[in-house]
Amino acid sequence: MSDAIPVEIPLVNVNDETVKLTAWLVQDGEDVREGQNLAELETSKALVELAAPASGRIHIRIAAGNEPAVGTVVAYIGADAPATTPVQRAASTLGSPLPMSLSPVPGILPSGTRFSKKALELLARHNLSAELFRDFTMVREQDILALVNRAAAASAEQLHHAMKGISLDGLTLPALFAECSTGHLDPEFLQSLRKNPETIASLPSAEKCRLYREHGAVIGDDVIFGQGTILVAPQIQLGDRVRIGENGSLILRERLAISAWSSFREGLSIRGGTAVFGKSTFAGKRILIGGGGNADPWALLVVGDNVYLGDDLFINICRPILLGKEVFLTQRSVLVTHNIGHSILEGWENTFAPIILEDFSQVGMNSTLYAGSRVGHSAIVGSNSYVISSIPRGKLAMGVPARVVRDAVRPIDRKKQLQIAETMVRQFQELLILKGVEASTIETQPILQFTARYQGKSYRLAFIESLAHLSSSSSGADESVVWTFESSATSPSSSWVIMDLLAKTISGPSGMFSDSAREFLRKRGIRLQPGPWLYQRGLI
């Protein structure tokens, strides 16, 4: 007996007894994922998508072009299915999951043009006129996204010619990339830097900052250059509190821009055309950016906000490399944008192509990303992997070559979240004790909390699921922090520091204890906003 899950025609409009199955978007026998669009259905009012109720192999039972009644089983999903003759699919175009309950966005639509429900939703989200698609017979989600991506790519190309043809979908570039009107160095000073870089490199940090500012560079407050570090570029822009470690050599033909609160340890080497880093970039030791082809006009590196770059990276920018926000590129990884081997006329591979890491993606240690690779939004590349193509959004891929093995994230329920929060409270208390801080035992009633003392001051950390249930009385400590899952309620006291662990926000007066708690959370992936954030003082 089959354990396959039926795929039925849903009731979209109450007056419809039948719908037209206009096209299948997957092939018979293909593996599909839960929520994936399987087919297009035409109702009396709109074109909608039929989403998969489960993951598995699909067995199609009703061909495109038919008009099945509401409730009809048109396919099964599972290892096997009731024995009937499979049918050919009529189309092969992937879409995105869409709840069947969504209603079309109202508006004036061109006569003779139909829009899918997802397309109408995207029109409203991006504030686009439906008139842009007057010549279309049918407008789908991918048509809207293609227009949006073309507009974004055209805008990016105005900032740098190397961006031509690169899709920015899933990618958030730093604001500084577009702020390119300042920081131009005096030609004579630039020439002296190129001829005698050692002279500037040997100066103290404060003197180097003064000279760069006097000759046109934008250098923010509290910027520190390590001993032996030199910057050479026609355009230099550094935000507040940028740190570049000892023996750094940053030599660009066009532009060097580093946003506020970014930190690079010793041995940073950059060669290429343009390099732009977003806010709170944290980079390790001995990072080499450039490599073969760095003199090519497409040598571009753009790094988004809150990115981590591990030790001993090799990043070849013969072609553009773009990293979105909150990307993790870990130790000893290699990114190569071109291949040179034997003659291309003899059939040997010869590739020159950009590499893209979309927002929130992660690359494990000792991994290699080859020219043309793209790691999707929130996807993970496992350590010791070799990526030669694209990793889909939200997937975990590993191996040589890297292949998708499962979803990158395993959703957890509220019960599990509460267990994790309690564990973190206990781990933080233990860490403080091991660091020499006097801490009380953990109380569980009326709320989960403990107190601590250090150098004559008292501290308190509490966790409560909703801030609405926290007493408004004073905490009685010099500094108090509450971790919560719901901070929409009014703070019980202006002296509390409120850290919403799910919204990843922080409010209230900062201090040594709250900075320590914030750093503890950062190391568990909970990066609180507003930022940028750089841990400089605390108890851990």
CATH topology-level fold name of the largest domain:
UDP N-Acetylglucosamine Acyltransferase, domain 1
Low-confidence stretches: 84-107
Oligomer: single chain
In the residues, how many domains can be counted? 3
CATH superfamily of the largest domain: Hexapeptide repeat proteins
CATH architect. name of the largest domain: 3 Solenoid
Number of helices: 7
Question: How are the SSEs placed, and which strands pair?
Answer:
Elements: E1 5-8, E2 20-24, E3 31-32, E4 37-42, E5 47-51, E6 56-60, E7 73-77, E8 114-115, H1 117-125, E9 138-139, H2 141-159, H3 187-195, H4 197-201, H5 205-214, E10 218-219, E11 224-225, E12 230-232, E13 236-238, E14 243-244, E15 249-258, E16 263-264, E17 269-277, E18 282-283, E19 288-290, E20 300-303, E21 308-309, E22 314-316, E23 321-323, E24 328-329, E25 334-335, E26 355-357, E27 362-363, E28 368-369, E29 374-375, E30 380-381, E31 386-387, E32 390-391, E33 395-398, E34 403-407, H6 414-434, E35 438-439, E36 448-454, E37 457-464, E38 479-484, E39 496-500, E40 505-507, H7 512-522
Parallel strand pairs: 8-9, 10-13, 11-14, 12-15, 13-15, 14-16, 15-17, 16-18, 17-19, 17-20, 18-21, 19-22, 20-23, 21-24, 22-25, 23-26, 24-27, 25-28, 26-29, 27-30, 28-31, 29-32, 30-33, 37-38, 38-39
Antiparallel strand pairs: 1-7, 2-4, 3-6, 4-5, 6-7, 33-34, 35-36, 36-37, 39-40
